[in-house]
Amino acid sequence: MSFWFDNWSDKGRLINLTGSRGVIDLGISRHMTLAEGWSQGRRRRHRAEILNEFEEILLQKHQHRNTSKEDVVLWRGEADVSKASFSTRDTWNHIRTS
User: pLDDT by residue (tens digit) across 52-63?
Assistant: First the structure.
């Protein structure tokens, strides 16, 4: 899961809210995963309040993550049900106009 480009917080994608300046201010590379962002392990105070909010959200998500289960890839299937197996038919039905 991408730290900057995936929708892992209630506020949406970080890159849309902070722009490229957020990458510099948070000190988290544009190519890092969420797990790598967590492992940075340092917290800063920022002038921009949105960055302080994301520091807090990141801390909360890290503290409440489920470490008892292994990560798995899920695919959106028929009727938007997530499943472990990939289906070209389901993918085609999601991307085409009916």
Answer: 888 888 788 777
